[in-house]
Amino acid sequence: MKRRGYRGVSFEEAERAVADQRYERMEKRQFAGGIQARSIFGPGLYLISDPELAAQYAFCHAEVDGSGRAAVLRQDVQLEQPFVINCQYSEMQLRQDALEWKYAGLALPHVRPEYIHTWLGRVTKDYLLAHSFDSIVYHVDDTVIYYVAYFQEKQIERIYLEFAFTMNGV
User: Fold this and answer.
1) pLDDT at 27
2) What is the pLDDT of residue 170?
3) Which H helix or E strand runs over 122?
4) Phi-psi region at 46: left, alpha or beta (left = phi > 0; alpha = psi -120 to 50)
5) Cβ atoms within 10 A of the Cβ of 82, count?
6) What is residue 82's DSSP assignment?
7) What is the Cα–Cα distance from 118 to 124, expressed in whole angstroms?
8) pLDDT: is 127 or 24 the higher one?
9) In the 8-state DSSP scheme, what is residue 16?
10) What percent of the chain has pLDDT over 70?
11) How far is CA 104 from CA 96, 97, 108, 124, in A?
12) Could you tell me which residues come within 8 angstroms of residue 120 by beta carbon, excluding any fewer than 6 positions away?
């Protein structure tokens, strides 16, 4: 399955990604005001189908970096065995199935609240990889799709600058 995905980043990160044709940083990040981008499906490269939404992420990244310059990158996403989340199979169902797979008949481990998303994400990713899925295609609604690529080197091609912008007052 070949798709086009977008990723919003600071301009400096965009320059490196285009030059290297790979991303240095995965999704988890602290933004201003306590906002976080979490890797809710485990470590991987998180992309979105909508360039305007990607620009909102870019704004947050540029704000954290303090540069005031942001960019949206586009790339081809090649997913061989994606797991599909949509109105028929939800994110919550995936988490439940992953936990049942990992801890069937066992007590769940005690995880500190600040690490719960990281732990759930790793369990979910382990579950998907154990069941031969290499990625996620998450239909949030009829217009927005998230892509999670677990193998950036094989799944992401042709990273290009879609657009860049400067933020005033940052």
Assistant:
1) 55
2) 46
3) helix 116-130
4) beta
5) 21
6) E
7) 10
8) 127
9) H
10) 91
11) 11, 10, 9, 14
12) 40, 95, 98, 99
Q: What is the rounded CA–CA span in Å between residue 158 and residue 151?
A: 15
CA–chain centroid gap for 167, Å, is 23
Q: Residue 10 is encoded by which pair of tokens?
A: 């600071």
CB neighbour list of residue 106: distance below 8 Å, 6 or more residues apart? none
Cα distance between residue 53 and residue 58, in whole Å:
9
**154: helix, strand or coil:** helix
Name the residue with tokens 């620009």: 55
DSSP state letter for 30: E
Per-residue model confidence as pLDDT tens digits over 137-153 = 999 998 999 999 999 99
Please state at what angle helix 51-65 crosses helix 11-20, rounded to 10 degrees.
Answer: 110
* pTM, two decimal places: 0.88
CA dist., res. 135 & res. 2, Å (int): 12
| Tokens standing for residue 93 | 């169902």
Per residue in 22-71, pLDDT (tens digit) is: 998 665 444 445 545 567 899 999 999 999 999 998 988 788 777 789 99
Distance in angstroms (rounded) separating the CA atoms of residues 38 and 1: 25
* Amino acid at residue number 38: R
Give the span between the Cα atoms of 19 and 103, in whole angstroms: 43
C-alpha–C-alpha distance, residues 165 and 66, integer Å = 14
